[in-house]
Write a structure and sequence with these properties.
Number of domains: 1
Radius of gyration: 15 Å
Strand content: 5-15%
Number of helices: 6
Distance between the termini: 35 Å
Order of helices and strands: HHEEHEEHEEHH
Shape: globular
Largest sheet: 2 strands, antiparallel
Number of strands: 6
Length: 141
Amino acid sequence: MSTYISDSLRTRIEETDRRRCCYCLTSEANSGIPMTFDHIQPVSKGGETTFENLCLACRSCNEFKSDSTEATDPLTGEIVPLFNPRTQRWLDHFGWSPDGTRVEGLNAVGRATIVCWRMNNPVIIVARSRWTLGGWHPPTD
């Protein structure tokens, strides 16, 4: 299976995802690091290179996500599918801490995704606190 992504598909994804990570909402402009193209359902597990299965991801989320498709909810111990930004709304599963530095899980999918992908790792917490002070974070849309 080819993982080549055409220029037109890249442009469509970048525009749809507003040049930010579909998982933690880090913007490319804030991080200064180009987003990666992530296969939501990994190629190693049969995922295709289509708009419906690709999204932008920051390097951190993409690295920790690896080929995971499910994880354990730390609250209930239940194994649940991880967040899919093409079929689910971010706001249905996640919210921001009052200070805007931590992604908070609103349900099992959100909690499991946050833990599995280490969406609140110490480095990103420091960066988010600086972005928040500058008024650049969290996103309002």
